[in-house]
Design a protein that fits this description.
Strand 12 and strand 13 (280-289) form a beta hairpin. This protein has 326 residues and is α+β, with helices and mostly antiparallel strands. The protein starts with a strand and ends with a helix. It has helices spanning 5-17, 48-53, 69-79, 84-90, 96-107, 110-131, 157-166, 189-192, 234-244, 294-308, 318-325; strands spanning 3-4, 23-28, 34-38, 56-58, 136-137, 146-153, 175-183, 195-201, 204-213, 221-228, 248-264, 267-276, 280-289. The protein folds into 2 domains: 1-136, no CATH class; 146-325, Hypothetical Protein Pfu-838710-001. It has an 8-stranded antiparallel beta barrel with strand order 6-10-9-8-7-11-12-13, surrounded by 6 helices. Strands 3-2-4 form a 3-stranded antiparallel β-sheet.
Length: 326
Amino acid sequence: MKIRFEDIELAYQSVSFGQYGENSAWLDKSSGKIYWHSESGDSDEIPEEVWESHDVIEIPHKRDLGLGRRLVFKFVESTIPDDYDRVREIFSSRGAYARYKVLLDSKGVLQKWYDFENAAEENALRQWCEENNIELLESGGSLGSYEVEQKFPVEDLAGVAERMGALGATVGEPQVEVDLYFAHPARDFAETDEALRIRRKGQKHFITYKGPKIDRTTKTRREIDLPLPAEAGTFDAWRGILEALGFSPVAEVRKSRRKAHIAWQDRNVECSLDEVDRLGTFVELELIADAEQLDTARACIGSLAEELGLSGSERRSYLELLLEQE
């Protein structure tokens, strides 16, 4: 069975957030289900038949992949070598990562560290999947897949993050995402309710097509999301290709996004806490589902939204909200 890489990545982030051994996650390769265990919260019980199938494997901690302090010093050597001894001193006592990030922020390279860390972790995690014969399904990799999403404007992101934590979620570090949207040369996407964008997230790039919304309450729509080369110049090169084909840039949406992952009703719901330039703060809940799973996916997201105290769902996209301001 193909398993979404994003699900494995989010489980890895949750496992790596606490002290080594504090949180754990187990993947059933035959079903794609992830089972959670936490020393400080609720845990899933892995059925005996799953254990006996020998298809269950523990998600690694970053220390298992050699991505702890070794990665820190590799970054320091290449980016701020004059501070190498200072960083060694920082990591000689408890609370090192918090002080390390304060140092990076003062040097203006904190976001560069996040990008470096994310790229290294993704490469190592993909290698782990390959070594353990885990066949991956990339986000949007199935042409029959739909994005089932609800977005809510909120005033208190910290409060929502706290409620997510009470459900066993780990809210990740912020990442800046820049989305450039395009107009079609032959049809009006505003009328057809479609969208085409290029996304830049650190060193990662994606091109995404979103089809028309198919219901009146959520943002359920077909989505095709394809990764592009993680190389300098990719964003501008693909923009050039689309413009040469007659597509024209419409607007840029820039946001700081923190992601979390909540196991809810036997599903892994992706949660995003967004601070969007010129728009404000929002929370998005999302699942990827096949056509026959749409009703259960909508019900799952609706139930989780109620549990988190979210209301006033906003069906308009960030792009639509921005264009209405102009």
